[in-house]
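User: quick one
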Amino acid sequence: MCDHSGKLVAWLDGELGNDEMAELERHISACGKCRSQLESYQQVSARFDAYCDAVLSAKAHRRRLPRRVAVLTTATVAAIAATLVFVLLRARVPTVAPPLSVQVQTQAAPPAIVVEKVPAPVLSKTDHPPPPAAASTPRQTANWQPTERAIQISIPAESMFPPGAVPEGLNFLADLSIAADGSAEQIRLRPRLMEVERRQP
Amino acid sequence: MSGDSLPLALPLSRFATDACEVTDLYRELREPLLRYLVCLGLSRDEAQDVVQDAFLTLHRHLASGGSQENIRGWLFRVAHNQARNRQGSYHRRFGEPLDLEIDAQLDETTPERVVLEKERFRRLGEAISLLPESERECLLLRAGGLRYREISEVLGMATSTVGDTIERAIRKLAEKCNV
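Assistant: Done. Structure below.
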């Protein structure tokens, strides 16, 4: 092995001082083995770079299914706000005991059939009054269960602050915890740096 | 806005003064940082989190009047240390097989070329996985565009040692891959 071969990578990386660099360049022009090694090191460096890119791309493919919602358009933010309002309002709706809901449901079916088949509808209606229309709403409310216990919502900074107040690329992430009864349990707001390109309209 | 937003407004106004600098750095260094962290063994999501945390740390650093010298090396060091803190992820091997996912990177070439490239990547991946951790980290930081002096600051070793380590690692890879 040549005495200068230990400096070839440093020369490739431009890490040698001027004197050392000039000396090595003179040597390389005269030494075929060092030139061959230099070429080999360049190829390995390029392949190493390509391999790193491939690893990054491969892991990007692995996460095709997004684990969190990243939403930046105003329209979607409006939809999220509507959802939040819905969840918060739901927390205020008084819950109805499940047995009562079942009773309303079982009473509702027979009168509908009786009214159609019996020619004396007045009596039937009096005996079996149809359930009030409003009764179905609380029943559905009582049986509804949230499928997700935690929701993450990305909120663009410009929806909360005036232009220029927050640097480009900074957004906020709201962590919303939902209790077992469907009510909002906890909301935590934290800043997040997002990809700048996504913020283009 | 109501009065209770006042505490948030003060740090944000300070943030705005550093915004251009941090945003420029974010554009320039986000991808190299991501690549470095993913190659260390973190998942893409973990790497994304670490990069964001590193930039938030940078903001706090600049806002508190911290040194602006060698910010690139500083960011890589912060990210590197955060990756180390996620021990379970960090110790996943960089050289683990890419399996068939590599096809997605090569789908515009001929089948023969795909096979050839996969074989080359496989051999290189094996060779990388056999390198000592310090050599692998030096190569990754070098691939991220860091100078030897910056690498020495990230890894806490002498600059001359970085040069020797990189030289040794490249030579090993060249021998193992028959380049």
